[in-house]
Specification:
This protein is of the alpha/beta class. It has nine helices and ten strands. The chain has one domain: P-loop containing nucleotide triphosphate hydrolases (Rossmann fold), CATH 3.40.50.300. The protein is globular and about 55 Å long.
Length: about 260
Amino acid sequence: MIRIEHLSKTFHPGTMNERPALRDVSLTLSRGDFVTIIGSNGAGKSTLMNCISGVIPADSGRIVLNDIDITRMPEHKRSRYIGRVFQDPLKGTAFDMTIEQNLAIAYCKGKRRGFQPGISRKERELFREKLSLLHMDLENRMTQKVSLLSGGQRQALTLFMAILTEPALLLLDEHTAALDPATAKKVLELTDLFGGNPDICTLMITHNMSDALAHGNRTLLMNDGRIAMDISGEERSSMTVEALIAAFDIQNDRMLLK
C-alpha cells in the first residue's frame, strides 16, 4: 500500500538551529494495516506525517502510495489519496458553513464539478445515511453551521469527512488529544470503525500507551527521527503497557546519552 524509502528531513540546515527531524526512515505498510505511532515530543512523528501528506517536502528519500510516486507531488494532489485529521478539532472543518456543505466539499475532493446544484438530493440522502453511523444525531442537523457543534462532534465529523471518499491512506495526528475522555473514547470507536476498512491504510499518532496497543494491528516507537521499535503479531498482542513504557523510557535514555 505505501512504501517510505530512506526518508530524511532537517530543519534550518547549516545554521545554529539545525535540527534533524527524520533520519533515513524506511517503512512499508500493507493494505488494511492500522499502525499506531508513539514517541516523545520531537521524535519525528508529525514530521513523518507532514512529509507523507505533502505539507513539507522531504530532503531525500521516496514515498510511494499504491505504486504512485508522490514524493514531489503537491499537497492538493496528494489529498485525492490521503485523508487527515489533526489534533485541533477546529482545523478540519469550515466553521461558518453547514454540516452538509462541509460534507459536500469533502465528497467532491478530486472530482470534476460541472454546472449543477451545489448539493444534489442524492448526495443529501447519502450524507444523511452515512452520518447516522456516528450516532450523534448529526443527520438531523445537516443545515446547521459547524460552529454550533461541540469539539467532539466536530472531530467526529472531520474523521467522517476524511474517509468519505475512501482514501488509500488515513493520517490521524493525535486526533483525540484535545477531547475529554468520554468524547475521546467515542471518537476512537469511530476510528476503529473507519480505520478497520481493509482497503484503507491508517497511521495514528498517540501519546496514550494504552491506546497504542488497544487499536490497530501494529505499533511503531519513534525516537530521534528514527523508528526505534516496530511490533506486530504475537509480540504486540503479548506486549503490556508497562513493557511499552519501559521500552519508551529506554529509548529516551539512549537519546539523552548521545
